[in-house]
Amino acid sequence: MTILGRVLVTAKSVSDSASAMQYLHDAGCEVTVATTTWPVDERKLIELSAGMQALVFTMEPVTSRLIDAAPNLKVIARPAVGYDTVDMAAATRRGIAVTIAAGANDQSVADFTIGLLLMAARGIGTAANAVAQGGWDRVIGTEVWKKTLAIVGLGRIGKAVAKRARGFDMRVLAVSGHSDPEYAGAHGIEYVTLDQALRDADFLSLHAPLNESTSNLINAAALAKMKRGAYLINTSRGGLVDEIALADAVRSAHLAGAAVDVLRKQGANSGSPLIGVPGIIVTPHMASLGREAIERVAMSAARSLVAVLRGERPPSVVNPEIYG
């Protein structure tokens, strides 16, 4: 069989998917599976990538150095919706397609977001841990019903969270650079400014991409505008939040709590100031890890990279300008 292209897969969501791996094999891809550790050894990653036509990475940084060291690279397939770990300018300059798994994991992340919201509001984790250790400490929590949820970033995931929140009869506010009046009207969503969202929210949920305009969006000044006793939920990117300021806001009881699935520095022993703070729940970037979503994401990445290697334009390419 003629080799369509050499593919490096570090994403376990893809390498563990029998369907995705079979799809790559049947398409004629020569696949190398590698495991990376944190912090990532960029030099080793560059060595592994040097002769590849396609990369399927999770959170490993695709730097300009790596791109320059891989002269045959044609596609970087992200098995997720974020791509802030990719040097987009370098990839686009080289004509390398960067693809994402848009629409593949939004329902899973939305489920998880509501789960974190409920855990934070009702103290479920604290109570369950106490029972596991032989205690019987019941926690008095806060109802979610008819509270105000402000969503920052009303894309696919934000919309899915909004629909779930309406099931709790919540008032839903949205901060978004792209409005969808028809959807908002159908689901009772109010578009507001970030300042109004901060002032009115009982729960603030972050679903914006990480870029220059959103980096450190929720800083000390933003947190100070939030009402006393509110909660912050983040299943998007750690870089949206000033972690020291958030930890201080919870310790001082200005915020009642927070629940985050993402950190500025990910991985074991990250050293994040959010870890270990009473009232702050930290989970290991697992919002998208529903079994069904993992399979959809894996197949999306596999199909996208095969399309590029065949000379076709893939779905969900985030730098379409490379196609002129």
Description:
There is one protein chain. A seven-stranded parallel β-sheet has the order 8-7-6-9-10-11-12, with helices on both faces. A five-stranded parallel β-sheet has the order 2-1-3-4-5. Helix 2 (18-26) runs parallel beside helix 13 and helix 6 crosses helix 8 (156-166). The protein has helices at 12-15, 18-26, 42-49, 64-68, 88-93, 106-122, 124-132, 156-166, 181-187, 194-200, 220-225, 243-251, 291-309, and strands at residues 5-9, 29-33, 54-56, 75-77, 97-99, 148-152, 171-175, 189-191, 203-206, 230-234, 255-260, 280-282. Helices cover 36% and strands 15% of the residues. By secondary structure, it is α/β, with parallel strands linked by helices. It is built from 13 helices and twelve strands. Strand 7 (171-175), helix 9 (181-187) and strand 8 (189-191) form a beta-alpha-beta unit. The protein has two domains: 5-104 and 290-323, NAD(P)-binding Rossmann-like Domain (Rossmann fold); 106-282, NAD(P)-binding Rossmann-like Domain (Rossmann fold), CATH 3.40.50.720. The mean pLDDT is 95.
Task: Identify the CATH homologous superfamily of the largest domain.
Answer: NAD(P)-binding Rossmann-like Domain
The portion of residues assigned to helices is: 25-40%
CATH architecture of the largest domain: 3-Layer(aba) Sandwich
Care to count the β-strands?
Answer: 12
- Class of secondary structure makeup: alpha/beta
Indicate the CATH topology of the largest domain: Rossmann fold
Q: Note the total helix count.
A: 13
Q: What gyration radius follows from the Cα positions, in whole Å?
A: 21 Å
Mean pLDDT: 95
Helices and strands, in order, run as EHHEHEHEHEHHEHEHEHEHEHEEH
What proportion strand?
A: 15-25%
Rough outline: globular
How far apart the termini lie comes to 32 Å
For the sheet with most strands, the description reads: 7 strands, parallel
Strand order of the largest sheet: 8-7-6-9-10-11-12
Q: How many discrete structural domains?
A: 2
Provide the CATH top-level class of the largest domain: Alpha Beta
Q: Low-confidence spans: pLDDT under 50, at least 5 residues?
A: none
